[in-house]
Amino acid sequence: MRFHKLRLTGFKSFVDPTDLIIQDGLTGVVGPNGCGKSNLLEALRWVMGENRPTAMRGGGMEDVIFAGASSRPARNFAEVSLHIDNQDRLAPAGFNDMDNLEVVRRITRDVGSAYKANGKDTRARDVQMLFADASTGAHSPALVRQGQISELINAKPKSRRRILEEAAGISGLYQRRHEAELKLKGAETNLTRVDDVLEQLA
Ligand code: ATP
Questions:
Q1: Which family does it belong to (predicted)?
Q2: How far is the CA of 158 from the centre of ligand 1 (A)?
Q3: Which of 44, 60, 69, 79 is 20 to 30 Å from 53 by CA-CA measure?
């Protein structure tokens, strides 16, 4: 799985559709302060399912929508699409039937976020799992925010362990365990109800 293009539309300072082509080797993004370099990295995290507005340097998730400038009105939606080369067929099951995979996230004011994978509506959880299983994703240690190194130095061992787990691609297992535990609890409640009914019938 190799990311090869990121397209931003109405996302933060990128009001017009803008493509970032990620070629083989090293891709550098250079520019003056405030030109949007960090916004590009945030777009990448956002399309992979980031749900914390603070991680997007905003107060609410709708803050990622272009807020307007002196010469341009604000937009009503923001969209980021990530084009992935899947010729090595390493994408997890359910996303692995094509050589190319395109994941799109769109947020519309007062409506919220929606995801698509190769044109089909997809749940946020499935997109998050797709990237978590591939050892990347919104919390990937490969994406280093400003100030993150000093945060790491001061972090407690438990938080540091989480970084190793992300890198090992096992963080999706925690989510699955949590979901399995909820299902188990539901099944136990149902069994208790069945016992009650059986007792009444006896
Ligand atoms: P530096 O080199 O200082 O870290 P940078 O190139 O990383 O800067 P960013 O922090 O990515 O720049 O971009 C900041 C710019 O994005 C600011 O000009 C800010 O006004 C603009 N911006 C952020 N959110 C929005 C939004 N919702 N609508 C319009 N512009 C926005």
A1: Belongs to the SMC family.
A2: 32
A3: 69
